[in-house]
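Structure in, sequence out. Go:
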């Protein structure tokens, strides 16, 4: 199996899925190695926030001032540590799975539920792979805070079939993370929706089995990670529109099928979770 870090380093100077039309113009970075952490990347003068990379997040208000009642507790956070042009399509999937329209962040459906979300995004026209920070090294303050305050985290990633140990051109999602119940529900819901779902195994970066992985830094010490192959992500966006600038407004039915399945799995794992 090809290691994610090895492949991404090799691709750091070439466009990856969905990076041919970024929303901003920037000079591709020329970093020699993967950043050691988000903190290290943010401090690196090679890149500029808002030009080369960006962050988006939403934390929902929990207003619990009543002595006789309890405010709803936000149980789940959805994250995309390698969004934008790094692992194309994961930003849009993160927003929609959290309950927001990727084009304008309107709540959809209006009645909810909605979830907290966080994403780190590559904004460059090419070379976004150089911004990849391994999930076990993700130390963004907001990401850590959101995950640490959630019972569940669903982390969305993109991979090639070769990285996943699958045949070339395979359209599939690998389900990992340390929460076995969450993994089970995700596999069941994707399978029922006609999406090929495989339980991730082997390399930690794909399987998401390290306690240090951002998806497992929850109140329960375990979460779930999805690795979505290139072909499956490509099927979610209109031909010729699979770019940073155009993806959010060119979503195809497979996108919403995937999102609906993920949201059903979240609903199932949240049932019965009690916050004392």
């Amino acid at each position: 199996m090809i290691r994610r870090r090895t492949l991404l380093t090799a691709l750091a100077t070439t466009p990856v899925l969905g990076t041919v039309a970024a929303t901003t113009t920037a000079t591709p970075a020329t970093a020699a190695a993967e950043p050691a952490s988000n903190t290290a990347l943010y401090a690196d003068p090679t890149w500029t926030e808002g030009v080369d990379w960006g962050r988006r997040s939403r934390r929902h208000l929990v207003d619990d001032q009543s002595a006789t009642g309890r405010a709803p507790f936000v149980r789940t956070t959805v994250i995309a540590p390698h969004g934008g042009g790094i692992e194309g399509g994961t930003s849009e999937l993160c927003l929609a799975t959290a309950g927001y329209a990727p084009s304008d962040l309107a709540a959809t459906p209006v009645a909810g539920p909605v979830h907290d979300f966080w994403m780190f995004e590559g904004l460059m026209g090419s070379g976004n792979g150089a911004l990849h920070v391994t999930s076990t090294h993700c130390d963004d303050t907001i990401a850590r805070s959101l995950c640490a305050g959630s019972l569940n985290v669903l982390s969305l990633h993109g991979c090639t079939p070769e990285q996943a140990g699958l045949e070339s051109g395979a359209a599939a999602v690998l389900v990992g993370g340390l929460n076995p119940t969450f993994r089970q529900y995700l596999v069941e819901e994707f399978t029922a929706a006609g999406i090929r779902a495989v339980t991730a195994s082997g390399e930690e970066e794909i399987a998401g089995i390290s306690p240090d992985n951002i998806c497992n830094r929850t109140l329960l010490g375990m979460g779930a990670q999805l690795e979505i192959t290139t072909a499956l992500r490509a099927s979610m966006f209109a031909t010729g529109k699979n770019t940073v600038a155009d993806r959010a407004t060119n979503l195809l039915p497979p996108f919403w099928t995937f999102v609906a399945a993920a949201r059903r799995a979240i609903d199932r794992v949240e049932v019965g979770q009690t916050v004392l």
